Amino acid sequence: MKELRQSRGRRLRVQHGGMGGYTLVEVLVVLGVIAMLASLLLPVLAQARQRGQAAVCLANHRQLGLGLHLYASDAEDRLPHNFGAGGTREAVVSGRFDNWANSLLNWELDSSNTNVAWLKAGGLGPFLAGGVGVMRCPSDRVLSSVQRSAGWSARARSVSLNAMVGHAGEFMEGYSNTNNPGYRQYLRLGDIRAAAQIFTFIDEHPDSINDGYFLNRVELSEWLDLPASYHGGAANLSFADGHAESRRWRSFSTRPPSRPDAARLPIELADHERTDYDWLLSRTTMRLGVSAADRN
Predict the structure, then answer these.
(1) DSSP 161
(2) What are the pLDDT digits (tens) for 59-75?
(3) What is the sign of the dihedral through the CA atoms of 123, 214, 91 and 178?
(4) Any idea which of 17-26, 237-246, 257-266 has the lowest mean pLDDT?
């Protein structure tokens, strides 16, 4: 009996048919190998998940582009309203819900952050076959600490519409946008002659997105609204012809972390930091009197 107890103390036995057991050292080695393999596989799985989310987001942008075309077809070629914060708030309070996206986002517990019903009520909502869920990138689960404490899982929208596309409400002066005077404000889909070169929807940085009106001023050199970089430093965009594409940002200043209060807008740009800014502005609008052929 004493010898049996000593044998059990020296060896850990796993019975399997007539075969002997494994020593404790052998079991620990196997567990170590499994842990090492897991540590190698988890980053690969995370990257695969990230690529999958980026693909879903890109498909969402195609749905948004299709919805924009359906809206214009139903509205005699007119593009939807694209209000700033004041106009969006008025549209919701009045019950008109006529902005393209009837939501205002912040880091507080305001219901507008998650109110999907307001997005469905008007604007582009009724024209989205995939539902208003396509307005949110699956990679965007950025929340403030107070929102996480309240049990929120995500805000309802990740994308905004190019400020120079659609009727800009309080920013309109005649047919011009007071934020970018001298440049084209596209009020009808047919106004966009270089449709493959003018972006419509864009992933917006969670710290920048408030209204659905993505604005930067052509004559300035600073980010007022900042694109997102959820997909390995890239954002997805859709264009007026209906196609969607991914753009990887080159400048560090374009890619602040995706968390509350990380962007510190506006971001003034030095000359060597303008690459992304110039790329996006060249796809935002054209100067009045310049044709698509002239620009090419």
Answers:
(1) E
(2) 999 999 999 999 999 99
(3) negative
(4) 17-26
